[in-house]
């Protein structure tokens, strides 16, 4: 059986990274979006929890609210987000 969350708050249900993971993502990205490089990020689940995506660093990407809106719900963009994040972390480390 498939459950589809339609309620306005449904989007935020169970989507929880620990403070430690959030801190780590913000640190690695210097608190900027991995796509548009905007300052101020939300921690995005690349694979949603609805599909058993885990609350781990590997599944977390720093996205600004705008990118979160555009790419967050789009499964075809997951590879793009993952790559953008990895490249961004790499650049920020230099
Ligand atoms: Zn963005």
What does this structure look like?
It is a single chain. The chain has one domain (16-93). It is 36% helix and 9% strand. It contains three helices and two strands, in the order H-E-E-H-H. Residues 33, 35-36, 38, 63-64, 66-67 line the site of zinc ion.
Fill in the keyword field for this structure.
single chain, 94 residues, mainly alpha, two-stranded antiparallel ribbon, 3 helices, binds zinc ion
Layout: helices, strands, pairs:
Blueprint: H1 19-29, E1 42-45, E2 60-63, H2 65-71, H3 78-93
The chain binds zinc ion.
What is the topology, as strand order, of the major beta sheet? 1-2
Got a strand count? 2
Provide a count of the helices.
Answer: 3
Output mean pLDDT: 87
CA gyration radius, whole angstroms: 13 Å
Unreliable spans: 5-12
The gross shape turns out to be globular
Q: In what range is the share of β-strand residues?
A: 5-15%
How helical, in percent, are the residues? 25-40%
Secondary structural class: mainly alpha
End-to-end gap: 47 Å
Question: Brief overview, please?
Answer:
By secondary structure, this protein is mainly alpha-helical. It has helices spanning about 20-30, 65-70, 80-94, and strands at about 40-45, 60-65. Strands 1-2 form a two-stranded antiparallel sheet.
């Amino acid at each position: 059986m498939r459950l589809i969350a339609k309620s306005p708050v449904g989007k935020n249900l169970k989507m929880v990274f620990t403070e430690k993971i959030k801190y780590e993502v913000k640190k690695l990205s210097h608190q900027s979006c991995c796509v548009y490089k905007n300052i101020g990020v939300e921690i995005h689940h690349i694979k949603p929890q609805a599909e058993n995506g885990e609350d781990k660093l590997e599944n977390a990407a720093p996205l600004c609210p705008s990118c979160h809106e555009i790419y967050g719900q789009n499964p075809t963009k997951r590879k793009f987000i993952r790559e953008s994040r990895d490249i961004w972390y790499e650049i920020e480390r230099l």
